[in-house]
Specification:
single chain, mainly alpha, 3-stranded mixed beta sheet, 3 strands, rod-shaped, binds zinc ion
């Protein structure tokens, strides 16, 4: 068994597993977060909240109209009945009735304005609901595509992990510990290939004796960067 080559294979697997895992978590994230859909939904909810608040305000204004009407009614009845003869009292009552009627008109104007606002909100809500529907339909297709991608990535990961287990079972624990230590120190690149007599990790020339040791499959580390050397 050529140790350098095995460790090199292990490193290639580790790098690939890392990359696949990253892609997989990106796909998982995409599957669980559809920002456009979330935004359209929260926009729709905000409009619905405004609609509910406006309905409440409208009801309040309608109640206010009823209340004022209830106040103005007995005054008007008295006025029509002609039971009050004192001109001063009559004038005051007339004035009060006029003021209350004015208040009613004001409240009714408010109700009308709110009805206009309610219409605008209604069409905004309908437009947003249509957006939500469209995004959901498109999302169904995209989701299927992402789920297929997710399944492929998971299968690739499983197969790489099996291969990794097989390689691990063939390597001495001391050598594995060295590999892991170097991996941490060298950002995942514990093993360097030799090309044209140079370490591809640091580009330094490897002495001939070490080159032949590496060729023979022995564990050789680069004298400069300490990476395990491998002859491809
Ligand atoms: Zn080196």
């Amino acid at each position: 068994m050529n140790l350098g080559r095995r460790l090199c294979e292990l490193q290639e697997l580790d790098l690939r597993i890392e990359k696949t895992s990253e892609t997989l978590s990106r796909v998982d994230h995409q599957l669980n977060h559809n920002e456009a859909l979330e935004k359209a939904k929260s926009d729709l909810e905000a409009i619905q909240k405004d609609q509910a608040a406006l309905q409440q305000k409208q009801r309040d204004a309608e109640h206010a109209v009823d209340d004022i009407q209830a106040k103005v009614k007995p005054i008007q009845q008295k006025l029509f009945a002609g039971s009050v003869s004192n001109p001063k009292e009559l004038g005051a009552m007339q004035q009060q009735a006029n003021q209350l009627k004015k208040n009613i008109r004001e409240e009714e104007d408010k109700v009308l304005e709110m009805m206009g606002q309610a219409e605008a909100l209604q069409s905004a809500a309908a437009a947003r609901a249509a957006d939500v529907n469209k995004i959901e339909r498109d999302w169904a297709d995209k989701r299927t595509q992402l789920q297929a991608e997710q399944a492929d990535l998971m299968a690739a990961l499983e197969s790489d992990r099996k291969m990794k287990d097989e390689i691990l079972s063939q390597i001495d624990p001391d050598h594995l510990r060295l590999y892991e230590k170097l991996r941490r120190q060298k950002q995942g690149n514990a093993v360097a290939k030799i090309a044209q007599g140079r370490c591809q990790g640091c580009k330094i020339t490897i002495p001939v004796s070490e080159l032949s040791q590496a060729r023979a499959g022995e564990l050789v580390q680069c004298g400069s960067c300490s990476r395990v050397l491998c002859v491809p």
